[in-house]
Amino acid sequence: MSTSRTDALSRLQGAGRFALELEAVSRHFGALVALADINLTVRAGERRAVLGSNGAGKTTLFNAITGDYPPTTGRVRLFGEDVTDLPVHERIRRGLRRTYQISLLFDGLSVIDNIYLACRGVSRRRFSLKRPGRDDSAFHTAETLLSAVHLDDARDMLVAALSHGQQRQLEIALALAGAPRLILFDEPAAGLSPTERTELVEILQSLPDHIGYIIIEHDMDVALRAAESVTMMHNGRIFKEGTPEEIENDPEVQELYLGQGHG
Length: 263
What we know:
Keywords: ATP-binding, Nucleotide-binding, Transport. This is ABC transporter ATP-binding protein. It comes from Pelagibius litoralis. It is a single chain. By secondary structure, the chain is α/β, with parallel strands linked by helices. It folds into two domains: 1-95 and 181-263, Rossmann fold (3-Layer(aba) Sandwich), CATH 3.40.50; 105-178, no CATH class. It is built from ten helices and ten strands. A six-stranded mixed β-sheet has the order 6-7-8-3-9-10, with helices on both faces. Strands 2-1-4-5 form a four-stranded antiparallel β-sheet, with helices on one face. Helix 4 packs across helix 5, helix 4 runs parallel beside helix 6 (164-175) and helix 6 (164-175) packs parallel to helix 7 (194-205). The radius of gyration is 19 Å and the shape is globular. It starts with a helix and ends in a 5-residue tail after the last helix.
């Protein structure tokens, strides 16, 4: 752990504010209650998994946090600031990032160009009409992120030619652009091979300590290895919270979600 990373995390934690606070958050779609009275706090730098069966409300929870589908009731705070009524792009400016279940990439561009555009898109010069030179800081940042997600060998490949696993790695690089403070990963291991899942966990575990994240994941092995705390959801509500070990060994969790015989 570098000194700069430690200092960044200490500053965030020393401010005495949570990275994320949800206060009595609910989301209704007509008569359907997708989220019901969610109270959740995530510390700065914390890595949390949100688990639950299909329909438990996990993705709706992410949508409420990001502003894609704002809460029907309740409040959302990022690093102490109430962002409940702010649009998505304003939450991004405050350090929130998200990946989606379906890859959202520029297939006709190279890997490095995708990362560069992400870096440029969150910079103050994103609307400049001046053509950037090769000394543009966004190029250097893009190269750093390329290495962080283990895609050096695919640098100049078109995104359309990447494997599904490589595209998932690229999405993480895009989410890292622009100094994020909290990232929401929506099923990043979906469709990956066992080898690719192992590499995904390595990438997540090596992220800078001041960057916290919440991961939705159906693969329990990935989720429990990548997280230090776990929130279980059921029918739009928080069902259990604890450490990976506590959740894995909880009889009610095993009956509800893991199934009998889970070791």
